[in-house]
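Incident log, support desk, overnight shift.

02:14 A customer reports that sequence design results differ from what the structure should imply. Their input is reproduced verbatim below. On-call engineer (initials T.W.) acknowledged and began investigating.
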């Protein structure tokens, strides 16, 4: 099946709404508990809390664009790739609730490790479909790697 290479603005907006919407919903559901970060014993390299919404907004936009590129492809692996994308997005959402609302630092760390593996898998399957779609997920993998360090150290220190 041939898909046009023209920009499908509606599909792009939907893709961005899915990724950004996940982040916004997680933010809304944890907004009363975000101050927890300031009350924790933080490890070296822990950024100020203002950094997180900026970085996550950029990452959710990159995720949405990447998923849109995959969605627009005519490759057979597209369905599997988008399923992996959806599962990791759900796990990303769950991690936020586990960490900020439930304050389950060790469980959220395990969740983050699973998320990291899913992101790595997503990069591989996205790259098989479109190299750019895979590359757009690399900053996400790097950030989740850093978040894993923060989460592990917070679990140890607190």
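02:41 Re-run completed on a clean worker. Output:
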């Amino acid at each position: 099946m041939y898909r046009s290479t023209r920009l499908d603005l509606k599909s792009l907006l939907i893709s961005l709404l899915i990724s950004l919407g996940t982040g916004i919903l997680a933010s809304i559901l944890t907004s009363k508990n975000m101050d927890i970060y300031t009350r924790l014993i933080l490890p070296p390299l822990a950024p100020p809390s203002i950094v997180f919404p900026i970085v996550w907004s950029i990452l959710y936009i990159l995720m949405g664009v990447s998923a849109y590129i995959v969605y627009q492809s005519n490759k057979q692996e597209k369905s599997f790739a988008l399923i992996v994308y959806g599962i990791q997005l759900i796990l990303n959402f769950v991690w936020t609730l586990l960490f900020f609302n439930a304050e389950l630092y060790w469980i959220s760390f395990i969740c983050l490790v699973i998320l990291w593996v899913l992101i790595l898998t997503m990069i591989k399957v996205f790259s098989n479909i479109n190299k750019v779609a895979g590359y757009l997920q690399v900053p996400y993998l790097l950030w989740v790697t850093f978040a894993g360090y923060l989460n592990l150290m917070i679990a140890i220190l607190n």
